[in-house]
From TrEMBL:
This is Rho GTPase-activating protein 27-like. Keywords: GTPase activation. SUPFAM superfamilies: GTPase activation domain, GAP. One of its GO terms (biological process) is signal transduction. One of its GO terms (molecular function) is GTPase activator activity. PANTHER family: RHO GTPASE-ACTIVATING PROTEIN 27, RHO/RAC/CDC GTPASE-ACTIVATING PROTEIN. It comes from the Eukaryota.
Length: 223
């Protein structure tokens, strides 16, 4: 029921002022990942690539990158602009705050109808992260990631390689592997029904993302 309601709400066209005017055509937010990639003829959504390139160009040493929230109203305006104008320019002065860019990117993932780690794999990832043997745990998570659909795998690769670069600047931006995992865990890996979401499950979600970050070069080897 929750997901049906979510899909219905996502179809509504929300203006920055909060009004609604029918339905969005070819939206980016709330669009199924495979459909979006196919429409754009790109292995990774252009919005994701654009945000990552902008963040890296402005500097990965900015304090609290991805942890500090940008202005919510400005983030919503950026989202509206993305859904209504294919020629989005992130160098526009309206988006000068990098935390607005990171906030919009963080908003994109939980609004996917299905997360990057698909619902069909949720239980398997949770079971894998519970394994006591570290080598077996790492191997199982790596093997599971490699079974994901191509759009999910390609988008995860681009995102996680970017997040690893963020972590490399941890002394400046104060973002560790653990803090990045806490930010992204619940948005990239979530159960299909709310009933499954308990505090311990959230810990496991974060741990899956944390392990994937730690094993990034092995899970996503350079092409």
């Amino acid at each position: 029921m929750k997901n049906l309601a979510h899909r219905g709400l996502c179809r509504l066209r929300d203006s920055p002022g909060g009004g609604e005017k029918g339905y969005i055509k070819d939206q980016v937010f709330c669009c199924a990942l495979a459909a979006l990639c196919e429409r754009e003829r790109s292995p990774v959504p252009r919005f994701v690539q654009q945000c990552i390139c902008t963040v890296e160009a402005r500097g990965l040493d900015i304090d609290g990158l991805y942890r500090i929230s940008g202005n919510l109203a400005t983030i919503q305006k950026l989202r509206y602009k993305m859904d209504h104008d294919e020629r989005l320019d992130l160098d526009d002065g309206r988006w000068e705050d990098v935390h607005v860019i990171t906030g919009a990117l963080k908003l994109f993932f939980p609004e996917l109808p299905e997360p990057l780690f698909p619902f069909s794999h949720f239980s398997q990832f949770i079971a894998a992260i519970k394994l006591q043997d570290h080598a077996q745990r790492s191997r199982c998570v790596r093997d599971l990631v490699r079974t994901l659909p191509a759009p999910n795998l390609d988008t995860l690769r681009v995102l996680f390689q970017h997040l690893c670069r963020v972590i490399e600047h941890g002394e400046q931006n104060r973002m560790s592997v653990q803090s990045v995992a806490i930010v992204f865990g619940p948005t990239l890996l979530r159960p299909e029904t709310e009933e499954t979401t308990v505090p311990m499950t959230m810990v496991f979600q974060n741990q899956v993302v944390e392990l994937t970050l730690q094993q990034c070069s092995e899970i996503f080897p350079p092409h």
